[in-house]
Amino acid sequence: MTSWKTIPADRYDVAVVGGGAAGMTAAIAAARAGARVALLERGERPGRKLLMTGNGKCNLGNRDLKPSDYYSDDMAMAASVLERFGTEETIAFFASLGLMVRERRGYLYPQSEQAAVVLDVLRYGLEQEGVKLLTQAMVREVSCFPGLAYSGAASQRNASPQRTTPSHARSEDQDIACRPRSGQETTDHGSGQGYILRLDNGSQLWAGRVVLACGGQAAPKTGSDGSGYALARLLGHQVIAPVPSLVQLHCGEKYCKALAGVRAEGTVRIYADESQRRNQMPGGSSYCQSSNGGQKGCAAPIRPIWNVGDNCIMEESGEIQLTERGISGIPVFQLSGGVNQLLAQGKKLRAELDFFPQYEAAAYEQLCCGRMDHADSKTVETFFTGMLHKKIMGVCIRQAGLSLEQDVAGADRQKLRQVFALCRRLPFTVTGSHPFDSAQVCRGGVSMREVDSQLQSRRSPGLYLAGELLHVDGRCGGYNLQWAWASGYIAGNAAGAAEKRAALNTG
Ligand SMILES: Cc1cc2nc3c(=O)[nH]c(=O)nc-3n(C[C@H](O)[C@H](O)[C@H](O)COP(=O)(O)OP(=O)(O)OC[C@H]3O[C@@H](n4cnc5c(N)ncnc54)[C@H](O)[C@@H]3O)c2cc1C
To answer: Which of 7, 347, 405, 466 lies 20 to 30 angstroms, CA to CA, from 450?
Structure first.
């Protein structure tokens, strides 16, 4: 690896900023397209986040790949990238680097189950394709020089040029030239325009085209601290405010502490605007009201409250983890980006946990009624024993206003019914989430409406964007790395091929 300080200022066809999954892929693709490529990484080594993925095993893709696994402000554009570079292309790309891939229930991992091996093959790939890897190269500024003629004398290139106005501050006429109408491909800038990259150590580097692949803001210790957003803004891009995603949620209930450490299968449902459904909360239960005055059994349920779909805005099922601060686990992770977005808009949200999602309302009613028919000579605790984890049952019992030790025969029957209801709608007030440090990805970033199908900027021709820096995020399960490979490959290949074409035209 060459430290930036040790090489002379130079010019490259393509400079890729960010040595993460997307940047390394982009650099290899650009080099394979025939370009002379530099990859600039601010850290001492590339791929630090990659080493953490899949608990060190790197879940690098998924056979079950569909647009609904992603979220973006331009889903059609995101989907078109994934159509052109999907799971098969990912496997083929890694095969070309010598990596063997195995599949477990659709989830793709390296055969070695080591993220370090994925990083190794990418690093060897960079070397093999002749990519100049510059580490400790923190890019502070990328400027577009519309008047710079790369095809001219080298002395002109190496001389310090008069900087023209940055693209985001150009006159309206210039700006319009850089902004094709939505839907059009970005007009190629040919050889008359290029970029200068300024590093925080004072060095600078020239490139005909630039791929920005600086990641988002998740896990900032790995290098992606949001500085890529600043670079994109400098070049005229709009950044949709990022929020943490694939992260655990914080909740306000005191009983979180009592539940900490429990894992249980279930469904998490998110509701907005509590006022709309106040009458349907477990406390106001109409569950199992019986024609015999609720004295025993439940012969004629009127309106079972576990018709849980009403007003629910999102739901996910799987293993839920309960923590001191709230709720976690894969289903919560999947919901967290959407939840954080709504919280950032000032929405009031609550989550409800359903520990019996496999039961239709009628079947659950039957189950509860069956148990109610045998509510004799036991404590409340023993009456409910066998249904759920002790800690969950204890919270449901106390929340219904009963104590574990009291005699079930003397207990208020409405409250007993409420316990059954809480097993399906245990409420949590969502107050926020763990911060970016603990998030796996960001929701937000550079708007997908501002790139064309080759991921070339509509704001600044010759600039390409890839990876998590863009406003595309995926579910847990290999989808985010799939996006990094796909967008990195398409952007890098397009940048390399275009620069090669421009060179041929001028040569
Ligand atoms: C703990 C954890 C586990 C995960 N597990 C999985 C998983 O199993 N499967 C999956 O699909 N996804 C997983 N993800 C998400 C996935 O890792 C990311 O979506 C993906 O790595 C993003 O790739 P990227 O190249 O866009 O950004 P990054 O990997 O963040 O890379 C960006 C790079 O740019 C560099 N950089 C930033 N700014 C500058 C600058 N100004 N100048 C120079 N360099 C700069 C950074 O140092 C960094 O190396 C996980 C994430 C985390 C945090």
So the answer is: 347
What is the arithmetic mean of pLDDT over 186-208? Answer: 82
Work out the pLDDT band at 157, boundaries 50, 70, 90.
very low
Query: If you take atom 31 of ligand 1, which residue's CA is the nearest one?
Result: 20
Beta bridge mates, 318: 266
Hey, where are the domains in the chain? Answer: 2-242+444-506, 249-433
Q: How confident is the model at residue 138 (pLDDT cuts 50, 70, 90)?
A: very high
Strands (E), 257-401: 263-272, 312-323, 326-328, 349-354
| pLDDT score of 179 | 36
Cβ neighbours of 239 (radius 10 Å):
19
Of 136, 389, 429, 148, which is closest to residue 274 (Cα–Cα)?
429
User: For 18-32, 59-73, 368-382, which range has the lowest pLDDT when averaged over its residues?
Assistant: 368-382
Q: What share of the chain is helix, strand, coil (3-state, %, to 5)?
A: 40, 25, 40
CA dihedral sign of residues 249, 255, 257, 261: negative
Of all residues in the chain, the percent with pLDDT exceeding 70 is 81
Residue 405 structure tokens:
């030790």
Q: Does domain 2-242+444-506 fall into CATH 3.40.50.2300? A: no
Most confident of the following: 138-152, 192-206, 438-452: 438-452
Is the CB of 244 within 6 Å of ligand 1?
A: no
Give which of 425, 406, 494 is closest to 85, Cα–Cα.
494
Contact (Cβ atoms closer than 8 angstroms) between residue 224 and residue 404: no
CB within 8 Å of 264: residues ≥ 6 apart: 319, 320, 322, 355, 388, 389, 392
> Can you tell me the mean pLDDT for 324-351?
96
CA angle 406, 409, 412 (to 5 degrees): 75
Query: Hey, how many other C-beta atoms are within 10 angstroms of the C-beta on 52?
Result: 15
Q: Is the pLDDT of residue 217 over 70?
A: yes
Distance of CA 425 from the midpoint of ligand 1 (Å): 36
CB of 21 sitting under 6 A from ligand 1:
yes
Mean pLDDT (the chain) is: 85
Residue 481 CA: nearest ligand 1 atom is: 11
Identify the pLDDT of residue 376: 73
Res 294: pLDDT: 35
Q: Does the beta carbon of 107 sit less than 6 angstroms from any atom of ligand 1?
A: no
Residue 50 burial (C-beta neighbours within 10 Å; 0-12, 13-18, 19+): buried
**Ligand 1 centroid distance, CA of 214 (Å):** 8
Adjacent-strand bridge partners of 205: 197
Atom of ligand 1 nearest to the CA of 21: 25
